[in-house]
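FW: tagging you since you asked about this chain on Friday. Here's the raw sequence from the shared folder, copied in full. Didn't touch anything.
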Amino acid sequence: MSFLLVPNEVASDSANLWIGVVNEGVGLSDASLMYNGNSFDLTQGWQTYRTRSGFNAVRYQHIKLQNLSPRTDYILEFSTGGKSRASGRIRTLPEELPTIFERPFNVLLASCFASSRSESILLGSSYLNLQKYHNDKTDIKILCGDQVYLDDPAVYFLKNTHSYNDLEDLLFANYVRTWTQNQFLTGFQQFLQNGANFFSSDDHEFWNNAPNRATLIRDSWRRKGRENWLEIAKNLLGIFQPRSSKPTFNVGTLSFFNADTRIDRDADRDKFMTTVDLLSIEHWVQTLKGVGVLIIGQPLFAEKAGFFGGRFGDWNLPNYEQYKDLVRILNRTNHSILVLTGDVHYGRISHCQVRPNIFIYEIISSPTALVNPLVGGSWSEAPGLFPVNSIPGTVQKRVKSDFKYKETKNHFLTLSFQKEGGKTRIVLKVCEIAGNGQMPKPVKVDEFTLF
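HL: got it, structure written out here
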């Protein structure tokens, strides 16, 4: 039984929030949200998702706070039954990118959180201590996939198949366990409720290598099993990790596009997103007025996965025919682009020069809590060429990886953005997840200025 308040996307004058009540029979006739002395009525608009078995249910609302002030902190408190049930905070976006003489716009980048691992509880305290004791206080968080591992533990799902009802209850329970992970001033719940979360999905919001058959997931061996799992997982994703219908947001001339390369992926390795979404990326690239930030679920600088990798691991973006179109679009940019991603269980910084003064940088941050030691602990440099295989209409470019930054421990990254003349200054710091009462120590790993 849990009450949840999770900030979603924010703008300079508004904020989207998700409020949930899980397996709790309390009345909501007097429910309200307080924020900096203001009140939002929550007595109406509740939706209910109940598993077919009837064993689990969540009542929830997606609400939007409006007429907020730019770059302002708001303290949130959800109450019902005369009691405070859940709290959180947000910071709205600045209207303009700060100059080098002002506090930078700070973005946290993270992915791959396996809540079943005992050390995963440390994420919340590391994040809160970063916010409290360091100058790297984040404005927003970008969570670019695998916020839940619905197919964990793999050994269990290799041995068992499930009816629709049993699978739905299992996946529901996994989300609840992850979203409510909480100890005193730590846990994933503390991480989520403090600061805006911009979500996108990857395979473990479904199963490893979704939507394709996975050798280690017995339910995925049959078409009906895959259909059931996809339906349930998409329902839960829409409830617990809602996304705005508008994937872009701007801070002055700095522009973000939060893409999802998993939810609409097809099984024949043709497309990893809808044609409409790809056209939206193309329009975004063509109309950039400054540096662009593209958020995707898997690395752009990658080789095709071979038969073994695709069968026992996951198909990479270059395995999809649509990858060629994405590469062509990015190569035509008139401004530098940062690609933010995760998935691979290590941190890496790589870049290539598209033409004079125009670069594509890829920043990887993964994992925050490694799902299994067998799939972590090693680092790989980016392929030497982008794209690896020649694509008509593009010229292959040399890719350089930063060998001073080879992170393989549980961590997240912060990116600080400032305006410097007509360019954007970017500073990257890594923060390893600290345990045993240790304070997080953000370490600067790179700095560059882009046009």
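FW: The longest helix spans residues 223-240.
HL: agreed, and The mean pLDDT is 96.
FW: great, closing this out.
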